[in-house]
Give the backbone structure.
Amino acid sequence: MNLNEAIAARHSVRSFKDKAIDAQAAAELQELIKECNRLSGFNIQLCLNEPKAFDSTMAHYGKFRNCKNYIALIGPKKDEEKCGYYGEKLVLKAQQLGLNSCWVALSYSKSSVPCKIPKGQKLHSVIALGYGETQGAPHKSKSMEELCRADGEMPLWFRNGMTAAMLAPTAVNQQKFLLTLENDTVHAKALRGFYSKIDLGIIKYHFEIGAGDADFKWA
């Protein structure tokens, strides 16, 4: 499964089988986490066989079941976009490894996450992981015209990037973003909404995958 296939196949899953994550899959995730931390300055941590964070009223309200594995996205307090960008790298890697996932901002107990948080950093979000009871379902999307603007005719690479961006998970499926193309520069804007800056990082990673080898730059 390549990354474009992982984007198409991946949907949010909240109910998991009571099954430990395969050791090889966990090792590959740990290796990518190490690389993401090196590149981002984050302190992302993988929590395995740890049920306490999702054994709470909030988690039950969020309809999570058998969630004992998750990725804790810990990093500098104002780096929400990086949180989304590097977190989604891990989400798509998990999909390639046969795992299911769900971005979680509120429906878990932060105080129960057994991670050390360095001074000046915070726990932005977690990504629930495991073998899903189902593969999830596609989310509804706004039209491409609502989510982007292009200066002149829209090139194929930009359209392909937008197609991938439209499949990106966003908080409560709000899709509060706008991508604008001016010559070879793409402007990415987070609109007002819950966790929209984290969402923008996810969207930018998806867009880069969809755009492929296109020679463009972010504003």
The helical segments are 3-9, 23-40, 57-61, 80-96, 144-147, 156-165, 196-211. The mean pLDDT is 96. Residues 35 and 202 are 17 Å apart (CA to CA).
